Amino acid sequence: MTNILKIAAVAASLAFLGVAPALADGDAAAGKAAFNQCKACHQVGPEAKNGVGPTLNGIVGRKAGEAAGYNYSDANKASGITWDEANLKEYLTDPKAKVPGTKMIFPGIKREKQLEDLIAYLKEIKADGSGV
Ligand code: HEC
After folding, report:
1. Is the pLDDT confidence value at 64 over 70?
2. Does residue 44 form part of some domain?
3. What pLDDT does residue 19 have?
C-alpha cells in the first residue's frame, strides 16, 4: 500500500514537471517593457539602425557578429555563437562571462523571469523588423 502511494506521488510530481516548462515560457509583452533597458544601445523594428550596439532584428537564431555594417569586437566575431535561447540567457545574465572581451557594457539581468520574458519578445521580432 505504501509503495502504491509512493508511486502515485512520483507520478504526480512527474506530471507537475511536465507542465512546469509551459508555465515558465516567457511573456513577450512583459519582455517588450524589459527591452527598455536595451534601447540606449540597440534598435529593433523596420527602421532599426546600428547604434552603440548592433540592431537586434531576428537575433534569435542569428549568428554572432552578423548585423550588416556594425563594427563588432574581435571577441564577439570569434565567439562562434549562434544566439539561441540558451546562449542569449547566458550572455544577458553576464555578457563578459559569456564573451570575455565583448564591448557590450551591461551588468546583466539576474532575474530568470525577466530574461525569459525578454527572450520571448526578441523571438517575435523577425529579420525584417516586423513583430516589435
Ligand atoms: C550600453 C550599451 C548596451 C546595452 C545597454 C545593451 N547592449 Fe547589447 N550590445 C552592445 C554592444 C556594444 C554590443 C556589441 C558587442 C561586441 O561587439 O562585443 C552588443 C551586442 C549584443 C548582442 C550580440 C549581437 C550580435 O549580433 O552578435 C546581443 C544579443 C545583445 N547585445 C543583446 C542585448 C540586450 C537584449 C540588451 C538589453 C537587456 C542589451 N544588449 C543591452 C551594447 C549594449
Report:
1. yes
2. yes
3. 44
In a domain? residue 3: no
61 alpha carbon to ligand 1 midpoint, in Å? 15
Task: Kindly give the distance from the C-alpha atom of residue 102 to the centroid of ligand 1, in angstroms, as a whole number.
Answer: 9
Report which protein residue has its CA nearest ligand 1's atom 27.
Answer: 64
pTM of the model: 0.86
User: Nearest-CA neighbor of 41 among 27, 53, 49?
Assistant: 53
Residue 85: CB within 6 Å of ligand 1? no
Rounded Cα gap, residues 21 and 62, in angstroms: 24
Q: Indicate which CATH number applies to the domain containing 72.
A: 1.10.760.10
Show Cβ contacts of residue 54 under 8 Å, excluding neighbours closer than 6 positions: 42, 67, 70, 72
